[in-house]
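Example 4.3 (complexes with small molecules)
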Amino acid sequence: MSDAQHDAPVIRRGDILEIEVEKAAFEGRSMSRVGNMVVFVDGAVPGDRVEAQVYRKKKQFAEARVEKLLEASPSRVDPACRHFGVCGGCKWQHMSYERQLYWKREHVVDAFTRIGGFDAPPVTDTLPAVEPFWYRNKMEFSFGEMRWLMPDELGVVDRDAELFALGLHIPKRYDRILHIDDCRLESQESNAILNATRAFFLARDIPAYSTRTHTGDLRNLVIREAKHTGERMVYLVSTHRREDIIRDYAALLQKEEFAVSTFVHGVTDRKSSVAVGDEDIVYFGDGTIREQLGANRFRISPTSFFQTNTLQAERLYALAEQAAALGKDDVVWDLYCGTGTISLFIARDVQHVVGVELNASAIADAEKNARENGIDNTTFYCADIVDFLGDKAPADVPSPDVIITDPPRAGMHAKVVAAIGASGVRRLVYVSCNPATSARDCGMLREYGYRVENVTPVDMFPHTYHIECVITLRKDD
Ligand SMILES: C[S@@+](CC[C@H](N)C(=O)[O-])C[C@H]1O[C@@H](n2cnc3c(N)ncnc32)[C@H](O)[C@@H]1O
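Answer. The structure with S-adenosylmethionine bound is encoded below.
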């Protein structure tokens, strides 16, 4: 046993520790070392000095909760939202935006150093969000028959009112819903619609659907809005049609203050909590909203995938385009292309784009989006990238001058990395939503002669620990 281990204090569940909080670590949790033990501290900001009570003790780490703030960190700010700390949505709202950006960059540097094995990785400052609040273009609220109360609501709310809730799920308690009346993520109109919807259905005694007993009716309220065009959609999902009541609800939504362009009622009796109707009934508008992204228009239906932060997605794609150093004669492969937003963003500047994606409905959307934007130099393939890069690619696919890859959080399959490595493509751009897996993949690509020239962290989700990156890789002759 080393001296340090010998001297380490013994930490037990229930202990109150005085802690200087060092940093924001894995998944954005504040942490410190006490002896050789890592202690995660809920409710703290790096730089705080706190008294915290240990509520879980494992071999390698302990988890504690702030009981008393002894000295506030200079990074601490008052959270803008009254639901902060109970709602799981914006865990970093009590940290200044500047420090959020700092810690996001630190996480990227740490991943590239520790996981990717890079010395001094070329990571720039984090590109801040255009708007740190009101940035989301979609909110999905849930109805529930078990309401979770804010501390100031305990003992004030009567028992009946606890049986109906409309808001967001409590973290790790998926059957409990917190009433949200003032969320800073989408818009004031979205809040107004949320509150009017709750009051409307409460007054009519329509029960929330229960995911435990599969009884009740109201399931989800989805509000989508196009930040450029200003169009707004309400999508209500429930078990029953209740046409008379829903007609009255549609009339309510047509009030000017809500600025709703289209209202769709989704009906399903599935035992699922996914906000999708088996039948979608359009009450007004055409059931879609239109949004602009770069030079393209996208038609968004109640369940279609679309990047959640429109303005920052444009900056992310512009950075990816710049990193690819595109020329008019280039053939680009856009791997994991989703609904083709990157392909279409760059299509006018290159000779041809080949998009590849596993999800068939995303590919159908990509093809439709290309047609509707008058773009005829893209080809979309529905395939697993592993197969596409293996021996199953159609023979007539033009080989790439540039590859752009935007995999899910798990990163790229080792076979995909190997196939890209073997392709010999010189310009490679990796758009990543998980620094740990992109660092791993870039480490593997180094074995094939790729250099990481630049890593730019991009903040798509302020007040959360999530971070995207645009990584520029190059291979010499
Ligand atoms: C991060 S999203 C990329 C979205 C898109 N590039 C955009 O900007 O909207 C990752 C995509 O990879 C797709 N995907 C996941 N695994 C795949 C695989 N093995 N082969 C092909 N596509 C896959 C998912 O369906 C998803 O659309």
